[in-house]
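Sharing a chain and its predicted structure for anyone who wants a worked example. Both blocks are below, sequence first, tokens second.
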Amino acid sequence: QVQLVESGGGLVQPGGSLRLSCAASGFTLYKYAMGWFRQAPGKEREGVSCMSSSGLTTNYLDSVKGRFTISRDNAKNTLYLQMNSLKPEVTAVYFCSACFIGTLAPSSYLDLWGQGIQVTVSS
């Protein structure tokens, strides 16, 4: 079964950290540029970070640069997003999917989305 399953979200205090995971099954993750997206209540979905298929190039939303790090474990077929120094404004449902490295837009090369995982930053 071809699917993406996100995990690792939750409630964290401002300044805290979380690591999101996106486990892929039914296809090989590293054959695609893959990244993270988020959707906050009342807002459109936006790209947060993207990693090229080679793993050599990454891109980040300006507001998360220096605080978020995208990575991938090819052996586990899993994508990660390490989120540090968290702020309340990053509260959203986070998704992984294929992406365009330059624009952080979703890519139609792999029209597949996980169920999303809630990240809440609040004191």
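Comments welcome. The radius of gyration is 13 Å.
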